UniProtKB/TrEMBL annotation:
Protein name: DUF1499 domain-containing protein
Any Pfam family hit: DUF1499
InterPro entries assigned to the protein according to its UniProt record, in alphabetical order: DUF1499
Domain of life from the UniProt record: Bacteria
Taxonomic path: Bacteria, Pseudomonadati, Pseudomonadota, Alphaproteobacteria, Rhodobacterales
Length: 140
């Protein structure tokens, strides 16, 4: 019985350490405030690329939506820099997802991806689709 209790307590401690690391791991802006070159929409297991013709004010309108989203904060960048990276955390565990939006002429390029794991279960696609819908709705 004693060994079972030790195993249970060690397992609980391991879970707490892992969840603490996920919640408290630092996010280096130099690692995350970047975007690969892409020219078309793409969905992959851990995130999405989205390209939209928004005009010169696309990033400003996107920022107005993203900056007010729940559990989302700016990690790096600004509208003036023409690129902003946001961190959005899940409600309960606090898994971070990173979204980088960049104005490229008339195009707004959005790159959303997870940090931990292999699949985001579509959460980045859902979030970005919602933000884009809000952004386009506010423009009308």
């Amino acid at each position: 019985m004693g060994r079972v209790m030790i195993f249970v307590w060690l397992s609980i401690a391991a879970v707490v350490v892992v969840l603490g690391f996920i919640r408290l791991a630092p996010s280096d802006p130099l690692d995350w405030n970047t975007q690969p070159e892409f020219s078309e929409d793409r969905t992959f297991r851990g995130g999405v690329f989205r390209v939209m013709r928004t005009g010169e004010s696309g990033l400003e309108r996107f920022h107005a939506v993203a900056a007010n989203a729940p559990r989302t904060r700016v990690l790096a960048g600004s509208v003036e820099d023409q690129m902003i990276t946001y961190v959005t955390r899940t409600r309960f565990i606090g898994f971070p997802d990173y979204t980088t939006a960049r104005q490229d002429g008339d195009l707004l390029k959005v790159y959303a991806r997870l940090r931990f794991g292999r699949s985001d279960l579509g959460s980045n696609n859902d979030r970005i689709s919602g933000w884009i819908a809000q952004m386009e709705g506010a423009a009308q």
